[in-house]
Design brief:
Strand content: 5-15%
Strand order of the largest sheet: 1-2-3-4-5
Order of helices and strands: HHEHEHHHHEHEHHE
CATH class of the domain at 9-102 and 168-182 and 221-242 and 255-267: Alpha Beta
Structural class: alpha/beta
Radius of gyration: 17 Å
CATH superfamily of the domain at 9-102 and 168-182 and 221-242 and 255-267: Alpha/Beta hydrolase fold, catalytic domain
Number of strands: 5
Distance between the termini: 16 Å
Shape: globular
Mean pLDDT: 89
Amino acid sequence: MLHGFAANKDNWVRFARSVPNEYHLIAADLPTPGNTSFDPHQRYDAQSMTTLLAGFLGQVADRPIHLIGNSLGGWVASLYAAEHPDRLLTLTLMDPAGVVPPVSSDLQLRLLEGVNPLIIREPADFETLLDFVFHREPFLPWPLRSELADRYTTRASINDKVWQDLSNHITDITPLMDRLHMPLLLIWGQQDRIIHVSSVGVFKRHLTDLRVVIMEETCHAPMAELPAQTAGYVNSLLSGEMAAGFDIIAPRERNLKVQFGGRPDSRSR
């Protein structure tokens, strides 16, 4: 499981609780606000991160895997899948970067104004970040809120470096989509302000073994905003229940009690 820019592996904690116990879950920290070491002399574009991921998976995974990525993590996951298709059982992309959206997002418009709301330079900027990432913000206790704001602020220069590398060395995944032969699930928040939901059309034009879920009243990180509901769709892919061509606009569900496909919640963790 690969998180997005300005995020870390903790984004997957609540999602992981709703994945069946038979799966061995690995949430990796990309070199952003996570715990992965950072070298200012190294390049941190998506292709470089893919190379780091390949080395990591070569050490921790001795068999084909299910790969899941959100945003930047989805971009890296797509590149890895294109380079190592034989290593993947399935690929799940949640609001992935790496394609050019037909419609500009709120983030793209802000960037044209010279403002990047994803980089926190002072604690007050953290509220703007949350507004961009979530349609309805999950509960964050105030001590954690303050700690996260401080943590992001101290890593502003690192995020500046990563953002510049990502922007200066773009690898568009569209020409590589013909290599993605594994079962692929695309999940997108309909209210995504960072990468516009119109990007779904790009994937539909280039992929055949594709399943699409557009989640209403959801923004850029569905696994953090609606973890149980998002995990339900992923579980259906992992179990083979979700066939190619599955394409829905999913209403927002609260307090989801059963996994997608009718499996009782007692099996989840």
